Amino acid sequence: MLERWITALHLEDAAAETPAETRERLKSLFPPGATRRMTQLGIALGAALRPLAPTEDDTLVYASTYAETRALEAYLDSFPAPSPTLFQTSIHPSSVQQNLIQRQQALRRFFPVTGGPELVAQALLVALLADTPRALLCGGEERGGWLLEQGRASDRSFAFALALSTESAGALGSLRIENSDTAPSASPAPASAPSFAPLPLPVFFDHLRERRPFDGLVAPGRRLVLRWSS
């Protein structure tokens, strides 16, 4: 069993905002002019991550399936003369890097995690296995344009950042991953065995936003328990 305590949580729910609307709403949180060079997800994630003040002694885990969707769209649209700037901005960890570079913040342990149905389980496992007293788990998506029409982008924009500690003092709640007896095996599973149901990143965000508890299988052989303090 792996468990940590949630000691801080910050969220940005940009929903269907345009990048310009998100930039205008949050630009006061950044140095003057800084958001002009940032993506929508970079701005939203920066707003959520900044109050946690990452240090080089923390473990930072970043989860996103699609990441900088709009930068990727713009990069692909720039062919046959592809833009090196758009390529750099479109890479998966870009939203975190935009903020770390801006703050000139070094990190010893940074784990960008991507994936599909089991993304939340994978990212949480990395965070809970961290060998530092504090692990920061952040993530998010930005609403796509033409990639959304192709089913290759998120339909909403959001970002979150939470601090996970080995100490329970002042905790908002807890996250625990434990082994389940439903892990794949050579023999057929009993008919009564609980089924594995993925926990998509947007649904996990909603659990955080609404402080909803969760107890269920999020990957084969992996049970997630999310609890909130009363």
Structure commentary:
This protein has 230 residues and is an alpha+beta fold. It has one domain (2-179, 195-228): Peroxisomal Thiolase, Chain A, domain 1, CATH 3.40.47. Helices cover 29% and strands 27% of the residues. The protein is built from eight helices and eight strands. The protein has helices at 19-26, 40-49, 69-77, 84-90, 94-103, 119-128, 146-149, 201-209; strands spanning 2-15, 59-63, 109-113, 134-141, 157-165, 173-179, 214-219, 222-228. An eight-stranded mixed sheet has the order 3-2-4-5-1-6-8-7, with helices on both faces. Helix 2 packs across helix 5 and helix 3 (69-77) runs antiparallel to helix 4 (84-90). The protein starts with a strand and ends with a strand. The model is unreliable at 182-193 (pLDDT under 50).
Summarize the structure.
This protein has 230 residues and is of the alpha+beta class.
Question: How would you summarize the topology of this molecule?
Answer:
Elements lengths: L1 E14 L3 H8 L13 H10 L9 E5 L5 H9 L6 H7 L3 H10 L5 E5 L5 H10 L5 E8 L4 H4 L7 E9 L7 E7 L21 H9 L4 E6 L2 E7 L2
Parallel strand pairs: 2-3, 2-4
Antiparallel strand pairs: 1-5, 1-6, 4-5, 6-8, 7-8
Helix pairs in contact: 1-2, 2-5, 3-4
Structural class: alpha+beta
Average pLDDT rating: 91
SSE order, as H and E? EHHEHHHEHEHEEHEE
Tell me the strand percentage band.
25-35%
In the CATH scheme, what's the topology name? Peroxisomal Thiolase, Chain A, domain 1
Biggest sheet statistics = 8 strands, mixed
Largest sheet: spatial strand order: 3-2-4-5-1-6-8-7
Please report the distance between the alpha carbons of the first and last residues.
23 Å
